[in-house]
Recover the amino acids of this structure.
């Protein structure tokens, strides 16, 4: 018994000597309190009364570790370090805050997980002891969200300053941060109570917003988009018309027009190729103004512009000489129509010729008229009756010549005939409206989609979608008929459709040398196809330029530059609902380039298919579109819409 007792006495003594001065030390400097380790052995009659830990409490930074040891406590007050790993169990009361791992020497290794407070417990043969551990995050700095911010001029967007901590949690410190911006010409950022971090965009460009928090400074990039707000609807009443109108002259100066339908207010704004121009009401002198039903705008290469709109009571126009503002609104005479409200069937085409003359082609009842403006005399002449037909489509060239198309039905035979004619804008023999040419004849159904174009060389083309002439065929196909001054009407044919199954929504673009593109949609396959024609060749087989989508795509703009390069802007059903506007360029000798997305659309709300674009022969363009979003006021949701315009991507890459 004596030898056994001596062995029991010597081993704890040696162990106690080894750990003296180390108990309760944290591997990472955690602070806490505990009982110091005892090196004096228990007396021979002492019994175990419990266990004690090297620390009762500790506060750790997230990411730090701590080692706890456990000691046997005896009835005589002595303690002995527990080193037998197999006899002790370590536990965490909340593993979301920390975990405890048993080491080979029976210690408890604490690893922090997230901020919070919990207990680490040791269990030795039924004896238990716990330490309260508090995990606090270490501050790592500050950041700003969002980064970057995309925002249009005249809009505000909120930045948030976030304090970063070692556990990955971010705390909003916007109200205690100090905000600033590097370029106050592009926008301002607020330090006012309740609005800290609110950025208000003024003009397009890129700047940096900063937030100082303590000794740390964070920054975020702000991209004030090169677009302009040109009309707001929804909560602002009356809202602007959904369809915007745009034009661009030969120098790259662009004009957009919009109106407020119920009040009759007609506005214009634009870009002078250097900066945005003021937004002005064209018909401010009218009191009261007529309502606005339809609106068109155009410009010639020298910069003269024409805005035309239709109301309930009449047809109106405003003319702007090159380099000048729009003049007073004038009423275009329509005295040949006794009942304007019920018989006026719409403006079909407008132009300002290279000589500065303005022309408007419109339908009145079952007749088509041409109104002419004398810019020198500043007056509109009485309308010229072109013929007893109701034109479906018309287009002018830069000389005031036009191509017109219309459809007639024989009620006795149910036969439909599509006809077209060219108008020569001159005096003397052989001028005026030329003889009508039948382009398509079919019984039972007629043309349901039609478009046309004419260039300054009097090359014209009419394209349409209709059922095949053979009644046994059921799918609609794309047709084209061409006109030249030398050959008259020719090449009436079905376009080579390739792998497409049916055609609809046809559009056409033509440049001064006769290069032509025709786009159309195959709704059955959800693809956009394009046919190309060159004067030196013939019609090429259609190729698909869009991707397979969730819905039916739509061509929004098609234009050709003088060098034969082209651009097609479209709504691709594949990219629904955000940022749906995409475009592809055609580059001579290279073909169609890869697909691109208009990055600035859809930043405020969902853009719709109202995008309008216009290009000049240099490849410069302007576009405008509408975005819709919703806001909640109390328990009620309201729809709000915005009209934007932007310089369009150039035709030439």
């Amino acid at each position: 018994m004596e030898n056994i007792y001596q062995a029991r006495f010597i081993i704890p003594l040696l162990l106690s000597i080894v750990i003296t001065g180390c108990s309760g030390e944290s591997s990472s400097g955690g602070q806490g309190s505990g009982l110091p380790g005892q090196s004096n052995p228990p007396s021979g009659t002492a019994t175990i009364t419990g266990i004690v830990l090297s620390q009762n409490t500790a506060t750790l930074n997230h990411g730090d570790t701590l080692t706890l040891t456990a000691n046997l406590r005896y009835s005589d007050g002595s303690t002995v370090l527990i080193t037998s790993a197999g006899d002790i169990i370590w536990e965490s009361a909340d593993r979301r805050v920390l975990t405890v791992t048993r080491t080979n020497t029976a210690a408890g290794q604490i690893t922090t997980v997230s901020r919070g407070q919990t207990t680490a417990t040791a269990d030795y043969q039924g004896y238990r002891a716990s330490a309260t551990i508090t995990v606090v995050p270490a501050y790592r700095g500050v950041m700003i969200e969002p980064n970057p911010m995309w925002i249009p001029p005249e809009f505000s967007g909120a930045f948030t300053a976030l304090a970063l901590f070692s556990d990955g949690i971010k705390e909003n410190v916007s109200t205690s941060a100090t905000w600033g911006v590097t370029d106050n010409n592009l926008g301002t950022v607020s330090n006012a109570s309740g609005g800290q971090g609110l950025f208000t965009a003024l003009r397009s460009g890129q700047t940096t917003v900063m937030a100082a928090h303590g000794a740390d400074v964070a920054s975020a990039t702000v991209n004030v988009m090169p677009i302009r707000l040109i009309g707001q609807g929804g909560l602002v009443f009356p809202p602007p018309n959904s369809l915007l109108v745009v034009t661009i002259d030969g120098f790259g100066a662009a004009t957009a027009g919009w109106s407020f339908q119920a009040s009759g207010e007609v506005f214009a704004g634009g870009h002078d190729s250097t900066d945005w121009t003021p937004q002005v009401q064209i018909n401010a002198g009218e009191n009261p103004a007529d309502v606005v039903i339809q609106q068109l705008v155009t410009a010639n290469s020298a910069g003269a512009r024409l805005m035309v709109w239709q109301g309930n009571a009449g047809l109106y126009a405003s003319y702007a000489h090159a380099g000048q503002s729009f003049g007073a609104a004038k009423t275009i005479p329509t005295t040949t129509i006794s009942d304007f409200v019920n018989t006026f069937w719409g403006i079909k085409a407008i132009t300002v010729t290279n000589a500065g003359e303005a022309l408007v082609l419109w339908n009145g009842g079952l007749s088509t008229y041409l109104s002419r403006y004398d810019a020198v005399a500043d007056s509109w002449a009485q309308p010229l009756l072109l013929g007893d037909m109701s034109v479906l489509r018309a287009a002018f060239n830069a000389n005031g010549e036009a191509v017109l198309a219309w459809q007639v039905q024989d009620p006795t035979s149910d036969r439909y005939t599509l006809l077209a004619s060219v108008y020569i804008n001159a005096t003397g023999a052989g001028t005026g409206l030329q003889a009508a040419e039948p382009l398509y004849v079919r019984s039972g159904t007629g043309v349901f989609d039609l478009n046309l174009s004419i260039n300054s060389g009097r090359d014209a083309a009419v394209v349409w979608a209709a059922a095949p002439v053979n009644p046994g065929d059921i799918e609609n196909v794309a047709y084209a008929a061409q006109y030249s001054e030398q050959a008259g009407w020719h090449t009436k044919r079905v376009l080579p459709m390739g792998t497409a199954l049916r055609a609809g929504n046809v559009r056409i673009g033509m440049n001064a040398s006769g290069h032509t593109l025709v786009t159309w949609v195959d709704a059955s396959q959800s693809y956009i196809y394009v046919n190309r024609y060159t004067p030196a060749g013939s019609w090429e087989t259609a190729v698909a330029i869009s991707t397979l989508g969730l819905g039916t795509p739509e061509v929004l703009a098609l234009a050709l530059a003088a060098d034969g390069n082209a651009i097609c802007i479209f709504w691709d059903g594949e990219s629904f609902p955000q940022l749906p506007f995409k475009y592809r360029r055609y580059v001579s000798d290279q073909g169609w380039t890869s697909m691109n997305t208009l990055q600035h659309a859809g930043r405020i709300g969902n853009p719709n298919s109202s995008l309008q674009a216009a290009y000049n022969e240099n490849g410069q363009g302007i576009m405008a579109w509408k975005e819709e979003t919703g806001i909640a006021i109390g328990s009620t949701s309201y729809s709000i819409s915005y009209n934007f315009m932007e310089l369009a991507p150039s035709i030439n890459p």
